[in-house]
Write a structure and sequence with these properties.
Shape: globular
Number of strands: 7
Largest sheet: 5 strands, mixed
Strand content: under 5%
Length: 596
């Protein structure tokens, strides 16, 4: 393609991204949105689709500066998609852990706690800086933090693949696969203020540091005491990862430990091998492991999480099998199924995993033409998948949520390996058909997977999970309820425990903070509530019942009245002993007498 034609193509692509962002910005969310996909104007999605089509085609077929422009276009567009809650002026996004993180950030800003007193203060400290320096609200500062932590993922995945293989094809493919955002599965990893998920996007930075350390061993001047700059980078990025979330730091230590084991075995078995020329990772593994151990064992939250994991492993009805069975039964009751949900949420990851798995097998069988250096790095990463996958099974039988967080980390490693794997596939396919034909086939396959990946970056009704958009009205309702109601009367929600809003609005490090597992807040018993026993639906005591637009969307529209019905709610409002005390368009609170 001529240079002038390429320039026009890139201009069209970047213009499309700019138009999409401007249209999204000019159409802010005015009320609760069950799906950010349907809430965002169609013009924005059409513009983004055009920009990504240009980005995919140029990233795969161009080289040098032109390929860099294509990758930059795709990364900018995907960053724009991830930034939609900020661009469309969401007050906040996230109703679970996100609200607790909002409370911790509020505590830092108000001086109730210091950053180092938190187990993982990374995103809270970053948001506090945005709040102080930029003067933005704390809620918006946290949304900025999501985007800031996400961008390194798009930058460093192609950089890592370039260091490993040096192939322009692999770099372009790796960039496209990174745009799928495979680490987000919306089961235990989420695109929001969710520190475990946010930490996943920093993992490629650590991987780049140790790949550069191994590969550029002779070309870089040493620092004081003979320290490599990349050794220092490994330590700094590892500590940064620890501060965002320690579970991903554990995974990095296991990754480095696996590489160290490969190096140790290679030195015992071979007299001549590329791995023998690599500097060892022993010291890095030990140092990062010690840093994690010292930091984690001094924190009560880590000790509680470890105890919960061990309890889960030893308790048959707590592990992943029990949870999957419960989810499958609920899906069947509302006309869905695990198979349908798996295809929607994991199809593109399954395709990438299959290609990478076949590629690894061919590498181990010696059926590829990889150069020895690239093959060494592929072996490092592929062999590290063995202990990392073993950790998944430990988590699965102990704490299923952590198991699906582990899937997120595995997806990061698979994303990196997929760049090399698909590049070899293009080479093999081009020997059967033409090279342009091979590029077209791969572009279409990756484009389809890209659409599926971006469809599930955010929660939405398509995966039976409504958008956790928190509006001004919802915050206002909870703030009035928490401020002006009787402190001795508990709050009960409709399938959602309201205590998180107390965290988000009032902070956590104070007396009287609501928390999970107490009678001060919780959810009503759906069976009693549906039977009309409203007074006995919450421990037979007086309580405040909270209903939000989110609850109605989830229970009535998405769950198809599985737990709560619209008729029951209408009857509830007219029942004696039930009084509406707070109401706006998206929030209602009722005082319910337990003796009614």
């Amino acid at each position: 393609m001529k240079r002038s034609t390429l320039n026009i193509t890139f201009a069209v692509g970047f213009l499309a991204t700019a138009v999409g962002l401007l249209v999204a910005r000019s159409n802010p969310a005015s009320s609760y949105e069950p799906s950010i996909y349907t809430g965002t104007p169609t013009i924005t999605w059409a513009a983004f689709a055009l920009a990504l089509a240009v980005a995919v085609s140029t990233a795969l077929t161009c080289r040098g500066r032109e390929q860099a422009c294509g990758i930059a276009l795709g990364a900018t567009t995907v960053t724009g998609i991830v930034s939609l809650p900020v661009i469309r002026n969401y007050r906040f996004a996230g109703m679970g852990d996100a609200l607790t993180h909002l409370g911790w950030t509020r505590d830092i800003v108000t001086g109730q706690t210091a950053p180092h007193e938190l187990f993982y203060p990374g995103i809270h400290s970053l948001a506090s800086v945005f709040h102080y320096v930029g003067g933005v609200p704390i809620e918006r500062a946290l949304l900025f933090g999501i985007v800031i932590l996400f961008v390194p993922f798009l930058l460093f995945v192609p950089l890592v693949v370039r260091e490993i293989s040096g192939s322009g094809v692999a770099v372009g493919i790796a960039a496209v696969i990174s745009w799928m955002v495979l680490p987000i599965n919306n089961i235990a990893t989420h695109m929001g203020v969710h520190t475990n998920s946010n930490a996943l996007f920093l993992v490629p930075v650590v991987v780049f540091a140790f790949v550069a350390y191994l590969r550029r061993r002779a070309a870089i001047e040493r620092l004081a005491f003979g320290l490599s700059p990349f050794t220092l980078l490994i330590f700094l990025t590892g500590i940064a990862l620890l501060f965002v979330h320690p579970q991903q730091m554990i995974n990095v230590v296991v990754l480095l430990g696996a590489i160290s084991a490969v190096q140790f075995l290679a030195r015992r078995r071979y007299d001549d091998h590329p791995i023998l020329d690599h500097p060892t990772m022993y010291a890095h593994t030990v140092v990062l492991g010690v840093i994690f151990t010292v930091w984690a064992t001094s924190n009560e939250r880590f000790r509680d999480a470890l105890a919960g994991l061990l309890t889960g492993i030893l308790t048959a009805d707590v592990g992943g099998g029990a949870e999957v069975g419960q989810r499958e039964a609920s899906l069947q009751e509302i006309g869905g199924g695990l198979g349908e949900l798996f295809v929607t949420m994991f199809f593109e990851l399954a395709v990438i995993s299959l290609v990478v798995g076949v590629f690894i097998l061919l590498v181990w069988l010696g059926r590829t033409s990889l150069d020895p250096e690239t093959k060494s790095f592929v072996n490092y990463l592929s062999l590290s998948l063995i202990p990392l996958t073993g950790m998944f099974f430990v988590y699965f039988f102990g704490t299923p949520t952590m198991a699906f967080r582990q899937v997120g980390f595995l997806a990061v490693i698979l994303t990196i390996l997929a760049g090399v794997a698909f590049a070899r596939g293009v080479g093999g396919l081009s020997s059967v058909i033409t090279r342009p034909g091979a590029n077209a086939v791969v572009a279409l396959a990756l484009g389809a997977c890209l659409v599926l990946g971006l469809m599930t970056v955010f929660a939405s009704p398509i995966i039976y999970s409504p958008n956790q958009h928190v509006t001004d009205q919802k915050f206002s309702g909870y703030e009035a309820g928490l401020t002006h109601t009787d402190d001795d009367t508990p709050l009960a929600g409709m399938g959602y425990d309201p205590y998180r809003y107390d965290h988000g609005l009032n902070g956590i490090e104070r007396e009287g903070t609501l928390s999970a597992g107490t009678a001060d807040s919780g959810t009503v018993d759906p069976e009693a509530f549906e039977a009309g026993n409203y007074s006995g639906a919450y421990h037979g005591s007086d309580y405040y019942f909270v209903v939000t637009e989110f609850d109605l969307t989830r229970e009535i529209e998405i769950y198809d009245e599985l737990h709560h019905s619209e008729d029951s709610l209408e009857e509830f409002e007219t029942r004696e002993g039930v009084d509406k005390v707070i109401s706006n368009d998206e929030f209602r609170m009722y005082s319910v007498s337990g003796s009614g």
